[in-house]
Specification:
The structure is a homodimer.
Chain A: H1 3-9, E1 11-16, H2 25-28, H3 37-50, E2 55-60, E3 90-93, H4 104-110, E4 115-121, H5 123-136, E5 140-149, E6 153-154, E7 160-161, H6 163-174, E8 180-182, H7 184-191
Parallel strand pairs in A: 1-2, 1-4, 2-3, 4-5, 5-8
Antiparallel strand pairs in A: 6-7
Chain lengths: ~190, ~190
């Protein structure tokens, strides 16, 4: 095995909460940005599978029975574009960070994975929190700008922020401190 | 001891990275918002001390010798307004989250602390990351909007965001998901 191939194998794709509950845009704040995020996630998943690289499917399982992300609700299911196939690990979590209450860190370390590429929903909550913790735990972390998305949000003082503004400020805060911000094409090119 | 008093005693003040290095605004991006954050932090510290409530001083100790936050550099020192007094624990960290590579969680739990009030620098990096992890670890978390601050930042695509915009979007992302956003006066009033 060449050193290049060995290095590539150490990069895992972490797919965060690509679940049907998020199809109900109004519930989460509306006006979602990046409508093509799922297409890009699908392209990344296809490339990772083709190269037999490690994929981790993170699934939010709310402890609140009223949440559309609770396991008894249909919204808990993965979207079709991001369904796990046999052998791909599913990490079930109940908080934003995929590293809390799970064995994700242990699974990554057991496989010698040093780099993670984070995609999914939503940019400012579970994606950002997981990327921040991944970086702080010592993983080289990338976040894919066009394979994540968020919704409008009303703040503590009643001020409304647009999904696009929240998305971009979230990435600005991750950039150069926690993660490399890349787009889908550049990540795909880095695999070849 | 009354139940009210007992409940108040379970609320810790987490003071994040109020260190001299941050006096060099230009180094961190310039145009800092909330110039009165340190005054508000000092008022909160005074109130916590008066009521003999738990205070934790978090100190960033960069592993990079060139960083002004490295322990060999003057900037590593606490600002005068936030100097620990005897008996107040100091949590030294080398990443953004005060919970990674430290025993902060164990110290909080050992004292039966269930609630944390987070203040300090900077809103979108160490304050946000620590607040997110505190919430995900199960602590009732408040972030004090006028006792935190940040700097302008240039993003991955060269776009510049103002400190005030980053600060407010950071708080919007914490609000109702990770933390209660409060101001200094409301926190002080809640202690009485």
């Amino acid at each position: 095995m060449s050193s290049t191939k060995s290095s590539t194998k150490q990069t895992a794709l972490l797919i965060i909460d690509v679940q049907q509950a998020f199809n109900d845009e109004a519930y989460w704040g509306g006006n979602r940005n990046n409508p093509h995020a799922e297409e890009n996630i699908a392209r990344l998943i296809a490339a990772w599978r083709e190269k037999k690289l490690p994929i981790f499917h993170v699934q939010h399982c709310s402890v609140n029975p009223k949440s559309p992300l609770h396991e008894t609700n249909e919204g808990n299911a993965f979207k079709d574009v991001a369904k796990p196939t046999a052998g791909e690990p599913i990490i079930k979590k109940s908080v934003n960070s995929a590293f809390i209450g799970t064995n994700l860190q242990e699974q990554l370390e057991a496989q010698g994975i040093t780099n993670v590429v984070v995609v999914g929903l939503i940019t400012n909550h579970c994606v950002s929190t997981t990327a921040r913790m991944a970086a702080n735990l010592g993983f080289q972390t990338s976040v894919v700008s066009d394979a994540t998305a968020t919704f409008d949000r009303v703040s503590y003082d009643g001020r409304r922020f647009s999904a696009e503004e929240i998305h971009e400020v979230s990435l600005a805060s991750l950039h150069d401190e926690f993660a490399t911000i890349a787009n889908t094409v550049s990540i795909l090119n880095s695999l070849t």
